[in-house]
Give the backbone structure.
Amino acid sequence: MRGIHKRFGATQALRGVDISVHPGEVMALVGENGAGKSTLMKVLSGAHASDEGELFLDGEPYTPGNPLHAREQGIAMIYQELSLAPHLSVMENILLGIEPTRRGLILWDEMKSKAAAALSIVGLENLSPKTPVNQLSIAHQQLIEIARAVALDCRVLVLDEPTSSLAAKDIEKLFALVRDLSEKGISVIYISHFLEEVQALSHRYTVLRDGETVGDGQTADASEEAIIALMVGRSVDDLYPRSQRTAGSVVLETNRLAGIDKPNSASIQLRKGEVLGIAGLVGAGRTEFLDIIFGLEPIASGDISIGSYSGSALPALRWQQGVGMVSEDRKTQGLALGLSIADNLTLPKLDGLGPGRLVIPSQQAKACEPWIERIPIKCQSARQPVGDLSGGNQQKVAIARLLHADVDILLLDEPTRGIDVGSKAQIYQLIDSLARGEESEGRSPKAVLIVSSYLPELLGICDRIAVMCRGQLSKAKPVEDWDEHQLMATAIGQE
């Protein structure tokens, strides 16, 4: 791809981008949210037409008219949000649009045979092609997407954040499959915010920033620090700030807390001025634990104490008690994407934004401006729809909502999932400042309870860490008493 330009109205998404991928090569495409990675891949896969530039496939000019044309040419794109038809079977999804037919009738036996061959390549030879896709795990659904690409004899496979929803064992299987496809001569473009994945899997990397190619090279010759500097345009000296903090009084306590399904037993004491992390595998009960505390799920047994209040409560009361939550799924639970930044940011605290119960938009926007500048949120104005922002800036809006409400306890569920390293660094700095009391109106230290699947993140920013394993929460220990191996061993029940 040479000199690729793409504009959407007043926004210049791509500015003369150059990338190349060789046969059998795994090329990592990295950059901050909004750098142009997805737009560039949509040009490659036929979803967007470039305004300027040239594309070549095997040295021949290549101009995809639409995604189906690109698939027929051997370009397979697998998005972070999987694009399967859940009500159809595995084999119907694999061969969707290229079903073998005779006189207009589908040849079901041939379809089953071709699907089985594709499943065998991705290590799912024991899965029945007739299985409905909605009965499969996310990890298996992702493999079905790759099987669909294999069935089309793809030459270039694009994987966009493929591990964001996978457990560690599924990530290992995916890596093994990518390496196997690479050895078969298939070119892989791998998009990820996890630089340790980039270094473990890719042969070469290309960095985009603000719609331009700003660097590339052999992955083995580049450090994480060098790649980060290219991504953000500056050196990130301290990705995980953890200043000197002094834990104060207990502000949140749970005693053998259990939900309808999970957790089974979870006891913690969260103190003012500390960051307490919860590690564990996907499905262990970590999200349910936060949901119960915030009032989104009922209590089956056990106790919750917040300050002088003890017992369950609905989220509206939790806000009044000084508890705010950032959901794991910001697109469906954490934000109202069709509403503006101002609407999302001020929703829990509309007092003072107009006379009586009225909200004056100009006052609402004015109340947002300090947070937009301080965090900072990259946007056109406070009236811009939050759905137009990059993932990192959407996450900052979700966190800014808690700051506007001036809560004392922040429940953060996977707060940096799917966002770039530059935005992560800003969020880590913000969490550290909150624990010290620098971002609150009265400069009072906040208490932060954070759930994360990214172990370096927990080890980098937390004061103490507890581990959830099959619904049981371990005792929280100082971060100095943990390493990644111990965290993972405890998470899988091998403490």
The radius of gyration is 24 Å. The chain has a mean pLDDT of 89. The chain has two domains: 2-232, 250-491. Residues 168-183 form the longest helix (16 residues).
